Amino acid sequence: MKVEMNRNSVKAKFLKLLVLGLIVISGISGVSQTTVKKGNLKVLVNNIKSKSGQIGFFLYNSADAFPSKTEKALISGFVKITGNSVEYTFSNLASGTYAVYVFQDEDNDKKLKTNFLGMPKEGVGVSNNAKGHFGPPKYDDAKIDFNKPEQTIVISLTYL
User: Are 13 and 60 in a shared domain?
Assistant: First the structure.
């Protein structure tokens, strides 16, 4: 009888360890499932008035430099204009909150031309087609939540 109780006790301890081990393993796999998701953000720019030059694309993840300091953008790229619309994809992008700024670089110098008041001479636009009031649009008005494997936004250029 004592031998049988010892066997039952050993079996009970073994089952407890097995259950505990399964809990630990499932917890570890749960951690790996919470890794940051990545995907592609496609930006389609329309309302391009001339086919000269290129469109600059700038992705920001904070208001610090948005939109005027393009050198501080998280990611940037340029696409030659061949029609009335152009697209660019920010690839392998982590889920998060971002804002996109674009401008038409008609003379291919990778700089936005402005007048003496600082107003753009070339077409400009931002995500959500946000508009500025006595200045450029605010990051909070232009920010988007990127949380899908594939996401597309459309920005219409504005000419002042």
Answer: no
Q: How many structural domains is the chain composed of?
A: 2
pLDDT in tens, the chain (160 residues): 555 555 566 565 655 655 555 555 555 544 444 556 999 999 999 999 999 999 999 999 999 999 999 999 999 999 999 999 999 999 999 999 999 999 999 999 999 999 999 999 999 999 999 999 888 999 999 999 999 999 999 999 999 8
Q: Are 14 and 68 in a shared domain?
A: no
Q: What is the 3-state secondary structure (H, E, C) of the chain?
A: CHHHHHHHHHHHHHHHHHHHHHHHHHHHHHHHHCCCCEEEEEEEEECCCCCCCEEEEEEECCCCCCCCCHHHCCEEEEEECCCCCEEEEEEEEECEEEEEEEEEECCCCCCCCECCCCCECCCEEEHHHCCCCCCCCCHHHHCEEECCCEEEEEEECECC
Q: What is the pTM of this model?
A: 0.78
Alpha-carbon span 34 to 45, nearest angstrom: 33
